[in-house]
Amino acid sequence: MPLTPEAQSLAVILVGVVGLWVTEALPLPVTALAGVVACVVAGVAPAKEVFRPFSEPLVFLFIGSFMLAEAIRVHGLDRRLAFAVLGVPWVGERPRRIMAAVALVSATISAFISNTATTAMMVAIAVGILAAIEDAGQEPGSPPAGDGMPPGKSALDPRFATGLLLCVAFAASIGGLATPIGTPPNLIGLAFIRAELGIEISFLTWCAIGVPVAVVLTSVAVAVLAWLFPAGVDSLPGVKSLVARERARLGQWSTGQVSTAIAFATTVILWTLPGLLGLLLGTADPVSVWMARHMPEGVAALVGAILLFVLPGGLGRRALTWEEAAGIDWGIILLYGGGMALGELAFSTGLAAAIGTSLTSWLPTGPGAGVALVAAATLVAVVTSEFTSNTASANMVVPVAMALAAASGGDPLPAALAATFAASLGFMMPVSTPCNAIVYGTGRIALKDMMRAGLLLDIAGAVVITLAMLVVSSRLWVR
User: Fold this and answer.
1) CB-CB contact of 261 with 250 (8 Å)
2) Angle (deg, nearest 10), helices 184-192 and 390-408
3) Which residue, of 1, 260, 269, 455, is most buried by count of CB atoms within 10 Å of its CB?
4) Rounded distance, CA 177 to CA 407, Å?
5) 3-class DSSP state for residue 174?
6) What does the pLDDT look like over 146-175, one tens digit per residue?
Protein backbone atom coordinates (compact mmCIF):
# COMPACT_ATOMS: atom_id res chain seq x y z
CA MET A 1 0.00 0.00 0.00
CA PRO A 2 1.31 3.50 -0.82
CA LEU A 3 2.75 5.52 2.07
CA THR A 4 1.89 9.13 2.77
CA PRO A 5 4.80 11.62 2.91
CA GLU A 6 4.43 11.69 6.70
CA ALA A 7 4.68 7.90 6.89
CA GLN A 8 7.74 7.91 4.65
CA SER A 9 9.47 10.48 6.86
CA LEU A 10 8.55 8.51 9.96
CA ALA A 11 9.93 5.30 8.43
CA VAL A 12 13.31 6.96 7.88
CA ILE A 13 13.30 8.34 11.43
CA LEU A 14 12.36 4.95 12.91
CA VAL A 15 15.20 3.22 11.06
CA GLY A 16 17.62 5.72 12.56
CA VAL A 17 16.13 5.41 16.07
CA VAL A 18 16.16 1.62 15.99
CA GLY A 19 19.77 1.66 14.78
CA LEU A 20 20.80 3.93 17.65
CA TRP A 21 18.86 1.81 20.15
CA VAL A 22 20.52 -1.38 18.98
CA THR A 23 24.05 0.05 18.89
CA GLU A 24 23.53 2.27 21.97
CA ALA A 25 25.65 4.92 20.27
CA LEU A 26 23.63 7.44 22.30
CA PRO A 27 21.91 6.93 25.66
CA LEU A 28 18.52 5.33 25.01
CA PRO A 29 16.49 8.27 26.43
CA VAL A 30 18.48 10.72 24.27
CA THR A 31 17.75 8.62 21.19
CA ALA A 32 14.03 8.66 22.03
CA LEU A 33 14.08 12.46 22.37
CA ALA A 34 16.00 12.80 19.11
CA GLY A 35 13.35 10.71 17.38
CA VAL A 36 10.42 12.84 18.54
CA VAL A 37 12.27 16.07 17.74
CA ALA A 38 12.97 14.76 14.24
CA CYS A 39 9.26 13.97 13.83
CA VAL A 40 8.30 17.57 14.56
CA VAL A 41 11.04 19.02 12.35
CA ALA A 42 10.17 16.66 9.47
CA GLY A 43 6.47 17.53 9.68
CA VAL A 44 5.27 14.05 10.63
CA ALA A 45 2.84 15.65 13.12
CA PRO A 46 2.44 18.90 15.10
CA ALA A 47 4.51 19.25 18.29
CA LYS A 48 1.41 19.08 20.50
CA GLU A 49 0.49 15.67 19.10
CA VAL A 50 4.04 14.34 19.12
CA PHE A 51 4.72 15.25 22.76
CA ARG A 52 1.29 14.24 24.13
CA PRO A 53 2.39 10.72 25.26
CA PHE A 54 4.79 12.31 27.76
CA SER A 55 1.71 13.30 29.81
CA GLU A 56 0.03 9.88 29.68
CA PRO A 57 -1.40 8.75 33.06
CA LEU A 58 0.95 5.76 32.99
CA VAL A 59 3.89 8.16 33.21
CA PHE A 60 2.74 9.00 36.73
CA LEU A 61 2.45 5.31 37.54
CA PHE A 62 6.13 5.12 36.64
CA ILE A 63 6.93 8.10 38.86
CA GLY A 64 5.06 6.82 41.91
CA SER A 65 6.32 3.24 41.63
CA PHE A 66 9.93 4.41 41.19
CA MET A 67 9.70 6.38 44.45
CA LEU A 68 8.20 3.44 46.32
CA ALA A 69 10.93 1.15 44.98
CA GLU A 70 13.62 3.60 46.04
CA ALA A 71 12.25 3.75 49.59
CA ILE A 72 12.16 -0.05 49.75
CA ARG A 73 15.81 -0.13 48.69
CA VAL A 74 16.93 2.70 50.99
CA HIS A 75 15.42 1.11 54.09
CA GLY A 76 16.46 -2.46 53.26
CA LEU A 77 13.03 -4.05 53.05
CA ASP A 78 14.23 -6.08 50.08
CA ARG A 79 17.09 -7.60 52.10
CA ARG A 80 14.73 -8.34 54.98
CA LEU A 81 12.47 -10.29 52.62
CA ALA A 82 15.41 -12.09 51.03
CA PHE A 83 16.87 -13.41 54.25
CA ALA A 84 13.43 -14.21 55.66
CA VAL A 85 12.81 -16.60 52.76
CA LEU A 86 16.32 -18.06 52.86
CA GLY A 87 15.83 -18.63 56.59
CA VAL A 88 12.76 -20.82 56.12
CA PRO A 89 13.58 -24.25 57.66
CA TRP A 90 12.48 -26.06 54.48
CA VAL A 91 15.29 -24.37 52.55
CA GLY A 92 18.05 -25.38 54.93
CA GLU A 93 21.34 -26.13 53.19
CA ARG A 94 20.04 -28.19 50.26
CA PRO A 95 21.48 -26.83 46.97
CA ARG A 96 18.33 -27.06 44.85
CA ARG A 97 16.19 -25.58 47.60
CA ILE A 98 18.62 -22.70 48.03
CA MET A 99 18.49 -22.06 44.28
CA ALA A 100 14.68 -22.18 44.35
CA ALA A 101 14.55 -19.81 47.34
CA VAL A 102 16.93 -17.34 45.63
CA ALA A 103 14.76 -17.49 42.49
CA LEU A 104 11.56 -16.95 44.51
CA VAL A 105 12.98 -13.93 46.31
CA SER A 106 14.43 -12.41 43.12
CA ALA A 107 11.16 -12.85 41.22
CA THR A 108 9.01 -11.53 44.08
CA ILE A 109 11.07 -8.40 44.67
CA SER A 110 11.40 -7.61 40.96
CA ALA A 111 7.61 -7.70 40.64
CA PHE A 112 7.56 -4.38 42.47
CA ILE A 113 10.97 -2.75 42.11
CA SER A 114 13.52 -2.47 39.33
CA ASN A 115 14.79 -5.76 37.91
CA THR A 116 18.27 -4.23 37.84
CA ALA A 117 18.16 -3.13 41.48
CA THR A 118 16.85 -6.55 42.47
CA THR A 119 19.69 -8.28 40.65
CA ALA A 120 22.33 -6.02 42.18
CA MET A 121 21.03 -6.73 45.68
CA MET A 122 20.52 -10.47 45.18
CA VAL A 123 23.92 -10.96 43.52
CA ALA A 124 25.53 -9.63 46.69
CA ILE A 125 23.51 -12.15 48.72
CA ALA A 126 24.33 -15.01 46.33
CA VAL A 127 28.04 -14.18 46.45
CA GLY A 128 27.78 -14.14 50.25
CA ILE A 129 26.24 -17.63 50.14
CA LEU A 130 29.07 -18.88 47.93
CA ALA A 131 31.63 -17.29 50.26
CA ALA A 132 30.01 -19.01 53.25
CA ILE A 133 30.32 -22.34 51.43
CA GLU A 134 33.99 -21.66 50.74
CA ASP A 135 34.60 -20.67 54.36
CA ALA A 136 33.06 -23.97 55.43
CA GLY A 137 35.58 -25.89 53.33
CA GLN A 138 33.34 -26.40 50.33
CA GLU A 139 35.25 -24.19 47.93
CA PRO A 140 34.12 -24.62 44.32
CA GLY A 141 36.69 -26.56 42.34
CA SER A 142 38.34 -28.14 45.37
CA PRO A 143 39.45 -31.78 45.07
CA PRO A 144 37.07 -34.60 45.94
CA ALA A 145 36.99 -36.26 49.33
CA GLY A 146 39.90 -38.58 49.96
CA ASP A 147 42.19 -36.41 47.82
CA GLY A 148 43.29 -33.88 50.41
CA MET A 149 39.75 -33.02 51.54
CA PRO A 150 38.79 -33.35 55.21
CA PRO A 151 36.73 -36.43 56.08
CA GLY A 152 33.02 -35.93 55.51
CA LYS A 153 33.59 -33.17 52.95
CA SER A 154 32.76 -33.57 49.26
CA ALA A 155 33.66 -31.24 46.41
CA LEU A 156 31.03 -28.76 45.32
CA ASP A 157 30.75 -28.73 41.55
CA PRO A 158 32.06 -25.33 40.39
CA ARG A 159 29.12 -25.09 38.00
CA PHE A 160 26.76 -24.48 40.93
CA ALA A 161 28.07 -20.93 41.34
CA THR A 162 27.25 -20.26 37.70
CA GLY A 163 23.75 -21.67 38.11
CA LEU A 164 23.04 -19.70 41.29
CA LEU A 165 24.10 -16.39 39.77
CA LEU A 166 22.23 -17.02 36.53
CA CYS A 167 19.20 -17.91 38.65
CA VAL A 168 19.30 -14.41 40.15
CA ALA A 169 19.39 -12.69 36.76
CA PHE A 170 16.81 -14.88 35.05
CA ALA A 171 14.35 -14.85 37.97
CA ALA A 172 14.64 -11.06 38.29
CA SER A 173 13.73 -10.63 34.61
CA ILE A 174 10.88 -13.13 34.89
CA GLY A 175 9.48 -11.63 38.09
CA GLY A 176 8.98 -8.31 36.34
CA LEU A 177 6.20 -9.93 34.31
CA ALA A 178 4.01 -10.52 37.38
CA THR A 179 2.71 -6.95 37.82
CA PRO A 180 2.18 -3.96 35.52
CA ILE A 181 4.93 -2.03 37.33
CA GLY A 182 7.42 -4.90 37.40
CA THR A 183 9.27 -3.74 34.29
CA PRO A 184 8.87 -0.81 31.86
CA PRO A 185 7.78 -2.94 28.84
CA ASN A 186 4.61 -3.87 30.74
CA LEU A 187 3.52 -0.26 31.01
CA ILE A 188 4.54 0.44 27.42
CA GLY A 189 2.39 -2.44 26.18
CA LEU A 190 -0.53 -1.34 28.37
CA ALA A 191 -0.29 2.19 26.99
CA PHE A 192 -0.35 0.96 23.38
CA ILE A 193 -3.33 -1.31 24.13
CA ARG A 194 -5.21 1.54 25.78
CA ALA A 195 -4.40 4.09 23.07
CA GLU A 196 -4.93 1.94 19.98
CA LEU A 197 -7.47 -0.68 21.10
CA GLY A 198 -9.38 1.28 23.74
CA ILE A 199 -9.01 -1.61 26.21
CA GLU A 200 -8.28 -0.94 29.89
CA ILE A 201 -6.38 -3.69 31.69
CA SER A 202 -6.50 -3.22 35.45
CA PHE A 203 -3.71 -4.00 37.89
CA LEU A 204 -5.59 -7.04 39.17
CA THR A 205 -6.36 -8.35 35.69
CA TRP A 206 -2.73 -8.06 34.63
CA CYS A 207 -1.67 -9.97 37.75
CA ALA A 208 -4.19 -12.72 36.93
CA ILE A 209 -2.21 -13.26 33.73
CA GLY A 210 1.30 -12.26 34.76
CA VAL A 211 1.61 -14.11 38.08
CA PRO A 212 0.91 -17.59 36.61
CA VAL A 213 3.29 -16.88 33.72
CA ALA A 214 6.00 -15.73 36.15
CA VAL A 215 5.47 -18.74 38.43
CA VAL A 216 5.72 -21.23 35.57
CA LEU A 217 8.77 -19.58 34.01
CA THR A 218 10.55 -19.23 37.35
CA SER A 219 9.96 -22.93 38.02
CA VAL A 220 11.28 -23.80 34.56
CA ALA A 221 14.35 -21.59 35.12
CA VAL A 222 15.18 -23.33 38.41
CA ALA A 223 14.71 -26.77 36.85
CA VAL A 224 16.88 -25.93 33.83
CA LEU A 225 19.66 -24.31 35.85
CA ALA A 226 19.70 -27.10 38.46
CA TRP A 227 20.03 -29.61 35.59
CA LEU A 228 22.73 -27.72 33.70
CA PHE A 229 24.71 -26.63 36.76
CA PRO A 230 24.38 -29.30 39.48
CA ALA A 231 25.95 -28.84 42.91
CA GLY A 232 27.24 -32.38 43.07
CA VAL A 233 26.62 -32.50 46.83
CA ASP A 234 23.55 -32.95 49.00
CA SER A 235 24.32 -30.22 51.53
CA LEU A 236 26.08 -26.83 51.61
CA PRO A 237 27.43 -26.26 55.14
CA GLY A 238 27.78 -22.62 56.11
CA VAL A 239 24.66 -21.28 54.42
CA LYS A 240 22.40 -21.62 57.46
CA SER A 241 24.85 -19.79 59.74
CA LEU A 242 25.30 -17.01 57.15
CA VAL A 243 21.55 -16.44 56.90
CA ALA A 244 21.20 -16.47 60.68
CA ARG A 245 23.97 -13.87 61.06
CA GLU A 246 22.49 -11.59 58.39
CA ARG A 247 19.00 -11.81 59.89
CA ALA A 248 20.36 -10.97 63.32
CA ARG A 249 22.24 -8.03 61.84
CA LEU A 250 18.98 -6.65 60.39
CA GLY A 251 17.57 -6.33 63.92
CA GLN A 252 14.11 -4.97 64.66
CA TRP A 253 12.02 -3.14 62.08
CA SER A 254 13.10 0.48 61.82
CA THR A 255 10.75 3.45 61.68
CA GLY A 256 11.61 3.93 58.01
CA GLN A 257 10.83 0.31 57.18
CA VAL A 258 7.45 0.49 58.92
CA SER A 259 6.56 3.75 57.14
CA THR A 260 7.65 2.37 53.77
CA ALA A 261 5.62 -0.79 54.34
CA ILE A 262 2.55 1.32 55.19
CA ALA A 263 2.94 3.44 52.05
CA PHE A 264 3.51 0.39 49.86
CA ALA A 265 0.58 -1.53 51.39
CA THR A 266 -1.69 1.49 50.88
CA THR A 267 -0.71 1.65 47.22
CA VAL A 268 -1.25 -2.07 46.62
CA ILE A 269 -4.69 -1.87 48.26
CA LEU A 270 -5.63 1.06 46.04
CA TRP A 271 -4.31 -0.79 42.99
CA THR A 272 -6.41 -3.86 43.64
CA LEU A 273 -9.52 -2.32 45.26
CA PRO A 274 -11.28 -1.21 42.05
CA GLY A 275 -11.02 -4.72 40.60
CA LEU A 276 -12.13 -6.37 43.84
CA LEU A 277 -15.12 -4.03 44.16
CA GLY A 278 -16.06 -4.80 40.57
CA LEU A 279 -16.03 -8.52 41.35
CA LEU A 280 -17.96 -8.19 44.64
CA LEU A 281 -20.44 -5.41 43.82
CA GLY A 282 -20.49 -5.48 40.03
CA THR A 283 -18.88 -3.03 37.66
CA ALA A 284 -22.10 -0.96 37.43
CA ASP A 285 -22.31 -0.35 41.20
CA PRO A 286 -21.81 3.37 42.05
CA VAL A 287 -18.96 2.60 44.47
CA SER A 288 -17.15 0.50 41.84
CA VAL A 289 -17.67 3.18 39.21
CA TRP A 290 -16.37 5.92 41.54
CA MET A 291 -13.24 3.96 42.46
CA ALA A 292 -12.47 3.07 38.86
CA ARG A 293 -12.90 6.68 37.77
CA HIS A 294 -11.20 8.49 40.65
CA MET A 295 -8.44 6.06 41.67
CA PRO A 296 -6.60 4.80 38.56
CA GLU A 297 -3.26 3.06 39.03
CA GLY A 298 -1.22 6.21 38.43
CA VAL A 299 -3.06 8.17 41.12
CA ALA A 300 -2.75 5.25 43.57
CA ALA A 301 1.02 5.14 42.99
CA LEU A 302 1.29 8.87 43.63
CA VAL A 303 -0.71 8.55 46.86
CA GLY A 304 1.81 6.01 48.13
CA ALA A 305 4.76 8.10 46.93
CA ILE A 306 3.44 11.24 48.65
CA LEU A 307 2.98 9.28 51.89
CA LEU A 308 6.72 8.56 51.83
CA PHE A 309 7.40 12.28 52.18
CA VAL A 310 4.92 12.56 55.08
CA LEU A 311 5.57 9.46 57.19
CA PRO A 312 8.61 9.43 59.49
CA GLY A 313 11.83 7.70 58.45
CA GLY A 314 13.66 7.95 61.77
CA LEU A 315 16.41 10.27 63.02
CA GLY A 316 14.48 13.40 62.12
CA ARG A 317 13.93 12.50 58.49
CA ARG A 318 11.02 11.32 56.34
CA ALA A 319 10.69 7.87 54.84
CA LEU A 320 11.99 9.30 51.55
CA THR A 321 13.88 12.53 51.02
CA TRP A 322 13.76 14.58 47.87
CA GLU A 323 17.51 14.10 47.39
CA GLU A 324 16.96 10.32 47.30
CA ALA A 325 14.03 10.68 44.90
CA ALA A 326 16.03 12.98 42.64
CA GLY A 327 18.72 10.32 42.34
CA ILE A 328 16.36 7.87 40.64
CA ASP A 329 17.13 7.16 36.98
CA TRP A 330 14.37 9.29 35.47
CA GLY A 331 15.65 8.73 31.95
CA ILE A 332 13.16 5.87 31.62
CA ILE A 333 10.35 8.46 31.57
CA LEU A 334 11.92 10.12 28.53
CA LEU A 335 12.48 6.74 26.87
CA TYR A 336 8.89 5.73 27.58
CA GLY A 337 7.42 8.99 26.27
CA GLY A 338 9.57 8.97 23.15
CA GLY A 339 8.83 5.35 22.35
CA MET A 340 5.12 5.85 22.85
CA ALA A 341 5.15 8.93 20.63
CA LEU A 342 6.86 7.04 17.79
CA GLY A 343 4.49 4.10 18.20
CA GLU A 344 1.36 6.22 18.11
CA LEU A 345 2.65 8.12 15.07
CA ALA A 346 3.21 4.78 13.32
CA PHE A 347 -0.54 4.18 13.64
CA SER A 348 -1.76 7.69 12.85
CA THR A 349 0.38 7.98 9.70
CA GLY A 350 -0.56 4.50 8.46
CA LEU A 351 3.02 3.18 8.64
CA ALA A 352 2.15 0.41 11.12
CA ALA A 353 -0.75 -0.76 8.95
CA ALA A 354 1.52 -0.88 5.90
CA ILE A 355 4.11 -2.95 7.78
CA GLY A 356 1.42 -5.28 9.08
CA THR A 357 -0.04 -5.77 5.63
CA SER A 358 3.36 -6.56 4.13
CA LEU A 359 4.04 -9.19 6.81
CA THR A 360 0.71 -11.01 6.55
CA SER A 361 1.91 -12.97 3.54
CA TRP A 362 4.33 -14.82 5.79
CA LEU A 363 1.56 -16.08 8.09
CA PRO A 364 -0.62 -19.12 7.43
CA THR A 365 -4.33 -18.64 6.95
CA GLY A 366 -7.21 -20.71 8.25
CA PRO A 367 -7.98 -22.12 11.70
CA GLY A 368 -4.37 -21.90 12.93
CA ALA A 369 -3.86 -18.27 11.94
CA GLY A 370 -4.48 -16.96 15.47
CA VAL A 371 -1.89 -19.30 16.98
CA ALA A 372 0.64 -18.38 14.30
CA LEU A 373 0.04 -14.68 14.87
CA VAL A 374 0.64 -14.88 18.62
CA ALA A 375 3.65 -17.15 18.16
CA ALA A 376 5.14 -14.78 15.58
CA ALA A 377 4.69 -11.76 17.85
CA THR A 378 6.31 -13.66 20.73
CA LEU A 379 9.25 -14.88 18.66
CA VAL A 380 10.01 -11.48 17.15
CA ALA A 381 9.95 -9.82 20.58
CA VAL A 382 12.23 -12.49 22.10
CA VAL A 383 14.77 -12.20 19.28
CA THR A 384 14.69 -8.40 19.37
CA SER A 385 15.18 -8.30 23.13
CA GLU A 386 18.42 -10.26 22.77
CA PHE A 387 20.06 -7.41 20.87
CA THR A 388 18.49 -4.30 22.36
CA SER A 389 16.94 -3.23 25.65
CA ASN A 390 13.60 -4.74 26.62
CA THR A 391 12.10 -1.25 26.66
CA ALA A 392 13.24 -0.54 23.12
CA SER A 393 12.05 -3.99 22.07
CA ALA A 394 8.56 -3.31 23.42
CA ASN A 395 8.43 0.06 21.69
CA MET A 396 9.41 -1.51 18.38
CA VAL A 397 7.50 -4.80 18.39
CA VAL A 398 4.17 -4.12 20.16
CA PRO A 399 2.86 -1.64 17.53
CA VAL A 400 3.91 -3.94 14.69
CA ALA A 401 2.24 -6.94 16.38
CA MET A 402 -1.02 -5.01 16.72
CA ALA A 403 -0.88 -3.80 13.12
CA LEU A 404 -0.05 -7.30 11.91
CA ALA A 405 -3.09 -8.70 13.73
CA ALA A 406 -5.35 -6.02 12.32
CA ALA A 407 -4.06 -6.57 8.78
CA SER A 408 -4.60 -10.34 9.00
CA GLY A 409 -8.07 -9.99 10.47
CA GLY A 410 -7.05 -11.46 13.83
CA ASP A 411 -7.48 -10.23 17.39
CA PRO A 412 -4.72 -7.67 18.14
CA LEU A 413 -5.02 -7.98 21.93
CA PRO A 414 -3.33 -11.40 22.41
CA ALA A 415 -0.63 -10.44 19.91
CA ALA A 416 0.05 -7.17 21.73
CA LEU A 417 0.17 -8.89 25.12
CA ALA A 418 2.43 -11.63 23.74
CA ALA A 419 4.89 -9.07 22.39
CA THR A 420 4.76 -7.13 25.67
CA PHE A 421 5.56 -10.16 27.82
CA ALA A 422 8.17 -11.57 25.42
CA ALA A 423 10.07 -8.26 25.27
CA SER A 424 11.42 -9.09 28.76
CA LEU A 425 12.80 -12.52 27.81
CA GLY A 426 16.34 -11.69 26.69
CA PHE A 427 18.37 -14.37 28.52
CA MET A 428 21.22 -15.33 26.16
CA MET A 429 23.62 -12.39 26.09
CA PRO A 430 25.20 -10.08 28.70
CA VAL A 431 23.91 -7.13 26.66
CA SER A 432 20.36 -8.47 26.55
CA THR A 433 19.38 -7.06 29.97
CA PRO A 434 21.16 -5.20 32.79
CA CYS A 435 20.39 -8.25 34.95
CA ASN A 436 22.52 -10.44 32.67
CA ALA A 437 25.28 -7.83 32.55
CA ILE A 438 25.47 -7.62 36.37
CA VAL A 439 25.89 -11.35 36.92
CA TYR A 440 28.26 -11.69 33.97
CA GLY A 441 30.37 -8.95 35.55
CA THR A 442 31.06 -11.16 38.58
CA GLY A 443 33.56 -13.12 36.47
CA ARG A 444 32.04 -16.44 37.55
CA ILE A 445 29.98 -17.02 34.39
CA ALA A 446 31.31 -18.13 31.02
CA LEU A 447 29.55 -16.66 28.01
CA LYS A 448 28.85 -20.12 26.57
CA ASP A 449 27.07 -21.10 29.80
CA MET A 450 24.86 -18.00 29.71
CA MET A 451 24.04 -18.57 26.03
CA ARG A 452 23.24 -22.26 26.52
CA ALA A 453 20.97 -21.69 29.52
CA GLY A 454 19.51 -18.54 28.00
CA LEU A 455 18.57 -20.27 24.76
CA LEU A 456 16.62 -22.94 26.65
CA LEU A 457 14.85 -20.26 28.70
CA ASP A 458 14.07 -18.23 25.57
CA ILE A 459 12.45 -21.26 23.96
CA ALA A 460 10.53 -22.18 27.12
CA GLY A 461 9.44 -18.58 27.60
CA ALA A 462 8.18 -18.27 24.03
CA VAL A 463 6.14 -21.46 24.42
CA VAL A 464 4.70 -20.50 27.83
CA ILE A 465 3.77 -16.98 26.73
CA THR A 466 2.19 -18.19 23.49
CA LEU A 467 0.06 -20.71 25.37
CA ALA A 468 -0.86 -18.16 28.04
CA MET A 469 -1.99 -15.61 25.47
CA LEU A 470 -4.10 -18.20 23.68
CA VAL A 471 -5.82 -18.98 26.98
CA VAL A 472 -6.40 -15.26 27.52
CA SER A 473 -7.84 -14.95 24.03
CA SER A 474 -10.17 -17.94 24.39
CA ARG A 475 -11.49 -16.93 27.81
CA LEU A 476 -11.62 -13.18 27.08
CA TRP A 477 -10.34 -12.34 30.56
CA VAL A 478 -9.43 -8.75 29.75
CA ARG A 479 -12.48 -7.78 27.75
Assistant:
1) no
2) 30
3) 260
4) 28
5) helix
6) 344 443 444 678 888 899 999 999 999 999
Q: Within 10 Å of residue 223's Cβ, how many Cβ atoms?
A: 15
Cβ 157 vs Cβ 230: under 8 Å: yes
Helices first, then strands: H and E counts in the chain:
22, 2
Whether residue 148 is contained in a domain is answered as: yes
DSSP 8-state symbol, 313: E
Residues sharing a CB contact under 8 Å with residue 180, sequence separation 6 or more, in sequence order: 61, 186, 187, 190, 201, 203, 206, 207, 210, 297
Give the domain extent around 442: 76-249+349-475
- Mean of pLDDT values over 257-282: 86
Q: Got the DSSP string for 410-450?
A: S-HHHHHHHHHHHTT---SSTTT-HHHHHHHTTS---HHHH
Share of residues in the chain with pLDDT > 70 (%): 90
Q: How far apart are CA 162 and CA 446, in angstroms?
A: 8
- 366 in the Ramachandran plot: left (φ > 0), alpha (ψ -120 to 50) or beta? left
Amino acid of residue 243 = V
Taking only the tens place, the pLDDT of each residue in 400-449 is 888 878 777 778 888 899 999 998 888 887 767 778 888 887 778 888 89
The helix/strand/coil state of 2 is: coil
Q: Which long-range contacts (CB under 8 A, 24 or more apart) does 383-387 make?
A: 384/423, 385/422, 385/423, 385/424, 385/425, 385/426, 385/432, 385/433, 386/426, 386/428, 386/429, 386/432, 386/458, 387/22, 387/429, 387/431, 387/432
Of 156-165, 178-187, 220-229, 337-346, least confident by mean pLDDT is 337-346
The alpha-helical segments, DSSP class H, found in 53-150 are 57-74, 77-86, 95-110, 115-135
Q: Report strand pairing: 317-318 vs 312-314.
A: antiparallel
- Asked if the structure places residue 213 within a domain, the reply is yes
Partners of 317 in beta bridges: 314
* 363 pLDDT above the threshold of 70: no
How far is residue 205's CA from residue 228's CA, in Å, rounded to a whole number? 35
Number of domain units in the chain = 1
Distance CA(137)–CA(34), nearest Å, equals 55
The answer to whether residue 83 is domain-embedded is: yes
Count CB atoms within 10 A of the CB of residue 283.
12
pTM of the model: 0.74
Task: Mark 1-23 as b/e (b = at least 16 C-beta within 10 Å).
Answer: eeeeebbebbbebbeebbebbbe
- CB–CB of 6/44 below 8 Å? yes
Of 196, 218, 185, 199, the closest CA to residue 421 belongs to: 185
Residues 6 or more apart whose CB falls under 8 angstroms from that of 11 comprise: 3, 351
